[in-house]
Amino acid sequence: MTKNRSFLIFTSITLLLLIFTSCRSAKYLEDDQALVTDIDLNGIPNELKEQSSLYISNEIRPNSALNLTIYNVFNTHNGKYKTDNIRQVGEAPHILDSSLVELSSSQIQSFLRTKGYFNASVNTQIDINQKKARLDFNANLGNPYLLDKIDYEFKDTSIQRIYINEVLPTTKIKIGEKYDAAKLLEERERLYMAIKDKGYYDYVRQYMRVGVDTNVRGDRVDLTIQVLNPENDKHRIYKINNISLLIRPTSEEMNREVKVYHDSSLHIDFMDETGHFRLRPIARYMYLRGGQTYSLSNENLSYDRLYEMNGFRSVKINFEKIDSSLLNVKYELIPRSLMANQVEGEYTFSSGMSGFNIGNTFSHRNVFGGAELLEVKLRYGVLFDPRLEGNLSQKIFNNDFQVGVNLVIPRLLLPFQIRGIGKYGLPRTTFSSSLQLFNQDNTYSNRYLINTLNYSWWQSSTLQHSYTPVVLEYRVGKFNETFKQNLRSEGYELYVESNDREYFGLGSQYAITWNAPKLLKLEDFSYLRSSLDLSGNLLGLVSQAFNFRRNEDNQRILFKVPYLQYIKGEVDYRWYKHLEGNRQFVLRFNGGLAVPYGNNSRLLIFEKSFFAGGMNGIRAWQARTLGPGNYNRKSIEDENLRLSLRNLDQLGEVKLETNLEYRFRLLNNFLGAKMNGATFVDMGNIWRLREDRFNPNGQFEINKFFSQIAIGTGFGLRFDMDYFIMRLDAGLKVKDPQFEGNNQWVIQKLFNTKDFKREYYNSNRPDRYNFIQYNFGVGLPF
């Protein structure tokens, strides 16, 4: 029996035992108790069922089978539940309580009336059988009440004008539609924001009142919307007078040399009790300024941007009334710890090899006095291959050392100013430099240095830009001489050329992202991310103008090293459909094209190529083990060469992927987290642009398109911890393009794998065929 089948059988038996054990929990109850096992809502429209269920008391909702089983293991004795020394694990049984049933029924009835069903009544039916209770909440709705007339009463004509101009054009309260109290609350909130943005600092939501009259005619309701004045006064507009900024030290920080001065150009009084900060970088995001009319939007915007600077753990904006029309504004900030250090480690397992990664990140959050972030990252990883001979040090398959430095400045560092650039999000300028030193056992080494300058900013609340005008890179890739000769003798000259070389790269990148803030929301929307990467155009023009020398491969060289020329584009489009409750359907298309030209027109380098498989792609395949096209690694006749080229030979210049995923809630409480499930189908592949000897049948051909498409399916679990999501996906291969004809449908071999796997191993050793690929990650796959 294979390991995968053993795991599946063990998991299935475990789940069945848990369900069986939880169903037997009623035996632990007293004779006058009953365990709530099922709840139904009847007579309620589907669009209101999910919201109505929220009004049922948690103490009488059916238990999570797993959590109840865990509770039973630790809190039962001699066939009864313990009454003392109770351990706080799992979930205690939800026992029928008639008072809570009655309360829940009343709350559901009240909710339905807020939705226009003023004559709604809810009664409950309780069925008890063998200490198990089933609850039915039966609603009799009656006809919904429709809006017949709306009257408005404003004590202040200026407030009335704001309502007419700012709120009424997009109101959701319309005559002829069903009464909905939630729309009235939304109307009150929109009016509140509109009035506060016009300078009415003292205005509160309670000034707007709504009268509801259902005693008019039939199933009709009249509304009277009133906006009152303050008692014995009128609504007043306030302007900003003086602005001050105080930066206080944390409780554990000693006071430094205090900075106190008045900036006459900004008209701000500044006091820094830490001695670490400068005024101007912070004042850029203080949107309440002297001489302006008070605005709640500007107040909220100041909070958002000052927190986004990531240098302050507390932001407070206090107001002081000078008279009936003037406000002094006092900003008070408490910085986060100036420096921090974080150590991370992980165990890795891949294709029978294991290893570890360890990293250290040092952070300084205020390098130049404007909440600039400096990060220095170190990372070392090693992978051991037990099939290699010798001691532990001789079994190292590869090791990887990386060091990087990032400097993030919370503004666009430009010789000119762009007004309003921070309205929708904090703009950032990032200087980045990193070095990688990689070695693979007796095979390959790589030295890679890259330096970038990046600008990112928000054009609107949903549209983000990222522009990297400078990408300067230098790479030295070297094969072991013996391994290189073996490659050449086997006819893999193109592969040698693509990896065993030095190059310069000087280019730029641009990316645009739409609707990223909605990715974790349950609603209907589309998401788009598109990127373009260009390299070598400027060097190409300069090299022609100054007639750069050429090497033996006829490539123009700079400092004796050739430079790159290529164009690479990628698009990631997703369509999210909310199916009520916690159910969601996602359709994703991910495509890319990379074209080498000019100075390196023959082949795209390793780092710029696409790969398929992995936790965020076609999940039934391990990363870098799918494609290109119909390529099968058995075409590499030398077994040792096949081993050495693992994860290096399956690359391409074209990428097409489609993913379909259905997400749903499994358990509302699983060990303190929400457990969601997902079923998915992934399709796609990568391709070479043109035929090459190293990847036979790997080129893109339209007449072979379907035969070159891989298909995988599977099931996943997502554990939502509120702050982050842990994910476990199991992908099953359905159609594998490395085979021919009907043999591509490998799903037919799933229950007769022994001979199939043995034949595959004999032809592709040391590669083994796995029908199921497990992927563990943090965050959603897309």
TrEMBL record:
Pfam families: Omp85 (PF01103), POTRA (PF07244). Its main location: membrane. Residues 94-138 form the POTRA domain. InterPro entries: Bac_surfAg_D15 (IPR000184), BamA/TamA_POTRA (IPR010827), D15-like (IPR039910). PANTHER family: SORTING AND ASSEMBLY MACHINERY SAMM50 PROTEIN FAMILY MEMBER, TRANSLOCATION AND ASSEMBLY MODULE SUBUNIT TAMA. Keywords: Cell outer membrane, Membrane, Signal, Transmembrane. This is Uncharacterized protein. The keyword Transmembrane applies. Signal peptide: none annotated. It is found in: Membrane. GO terms for cellular component: outer membrane. The lineage of its organism: Bacteria, Pseudomonadati, Bacteroidota, Sphingobacteriia, Sphingobacteriales. It comes from the Bacteria. Residues 563-744 form the Bacterial surface antigen (D15) domain.
